[in-house]
Design a protein that fits this description.
The chain is an alpha+beta fold. The chain folds into 2 domains: about 5-65, Arc Repressor Mutant, subunit A; about 70-230, Chorismate lyase, CATH 3.40.1410.10. It is built from 8 helices and 10 strands. Strands 4-5-6-9-8-7 form a 6-stranded antiparallel beta sheet.
Length: about 240
């Protein structure tokens, strides 16, 4: 890790352990420079990471205020497997495979995956965090492109299998985020509490050669997640 990453991690640990509580300000840049024996540029890089990941907000003339970080940060930009995201989450995390089938592509799936013909993997997985079932993922993968997939891969990491065993390069995705009513099935398999809405992230994922290989519907209980992105203004 670089020095600014170590400082970022230390500040993040202090935010998570409530050394710096939500609604309070971090020490000033000058104070942080003295505390960590670092340059202003290094401190600013560490603070930028905290800002980028949704842990602080900079207030002109006052400094960096700590935001409520109880919700899990779910990145909108970039492509990460759930196994990779687990490393950024705290608690006991489990993947439960509810469905694993290979079916002939019907008209709707052909349209979604831009397929002429062939089979589709249909995989439904529940993500449980600290005993609460709060994410429902339903994946549709083009069987002409992704072959040899097993339920063990679904339990572990499909993307890891695609990249490490099939040697295919996952490149980009197109995402759509909406808030939708929970279906009867959603309420049966997720711990919904009193919530009747879910945050739905639809993703279309492509290989390096622009082949669409996966269509995913991922539903999240709204009280548990922050959907974060980093945007830069261009003119």
């Amino acid at each position: 890790m670089t020095k600014y990453q170590r400082i970022y991690q230390d500040l993040l640990d202090k935010i998570k352990t409530k050394t710096y509580e939500k609604g309070t300000y971090l020490p000033s840049e000058n104070e942080l420079m003295k505390a960590y024996g670092s340059s202003r540029d290094t401190i600013r890089k560490a603070l930028q990471l905290l800002l980028q990941n949704g842990y602080i907000q900079k207030v002109v003339g006052k400094g960096s205020i700590v935001l409520d970080s109880e919700r899990i940060a779910f990145p909108v930009s970039g492509i990460s497997s759930f196994k990779e995201l687990k490393s950024t989450m705290d608690g006991d995390i489990e993947t439960i495979v509810e469905e694993f089938n290979v079916i002939p592509a019907d008209k709707d799936l052909k349209d979604e995956l831009y397929m002429e013909d062939g089979d589709v993997y249909v995989i439904e997985r529940i993500r449980s965090i600290n005993g609460e079932r709060i994410i429902l993922d339903r994946d549709y993968l083009n069987g002409n492109v992704i072959q040899g997939l097993t339920i063990d891969h679904a339990k572990d990491s499909i993307y890891e299998y695609i990249e490490n065993e099939l040697k295919l390069n996952i490149s980009f995705s197109r995402k759509e985020i909406t808030v939708i009513p929970a279906t009867k099935h959603d309420r049966e398999v997720l711990d919904m509490l009193d919530y009747d809405l879910l945050v739905c992230v639809k993703s279309y994922s492509y290989l390096e050669d622009a082949t669409l290989f996966e269509y995913t519907i991922s539903k999240h209980r709204p009280d548990k997640f922050r959907f974060v992105d980093f945007a830069r203004r261009t003119q």
